[in-house]
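Figure S7 source data.
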Amino acid sequence: MAIEDKKVVERRMAELLKTGAAMLAQKCPVEGCYLPLFKLKTGEVICPEHGRVYIVKSDEEAKEVASRALMLKVLEDLEGRVIEALSTLPQHSIDEGYRDVIGWLEVLERIMRIRRELFSEERKSKAS
Ligand SMILES: [Zn+2]
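C-alpha cells for the predicted zinc ion complex:
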C-alpha cells in the first residue's frame, strides 16, 4: 500500500472509531488485506479500505455471496448502459422509434425489480 493510501486508511479508521464503530479481532477477508474489520452501529461489518465485507461461515455461503455480488455488478453495468443508450438517443429516433425506447425501459424495469428482490432477500437472510 502506498504511503498516501495508508494515511487515508488510517484517517478512515480514526473516523470509524469516532462514530462509535467497534474494531473487531477479525481481519479483512480480502486477499492481501490484513486490516482489522469494524462493526458499525448498524451491524454492518466493513474494512476501512474495501468497505462492506461479508463474513461467511461456509463455502456454500461464500459462493452465494459471490454470485450475488456478481449479479449486482452485472445489473449495475446493464443499468448504466441502458441509461446511456436512452440519454444518447437522438431526438428524432425517440420520436420515430418508440418501440426501441420502450424495449430499453422494460429492461430497466426488470433490472430494478431484480435488484429489489435481491435486496429484500438479503434483508430477510439478515433478519433470520
Ligand atoms: Zn480489506
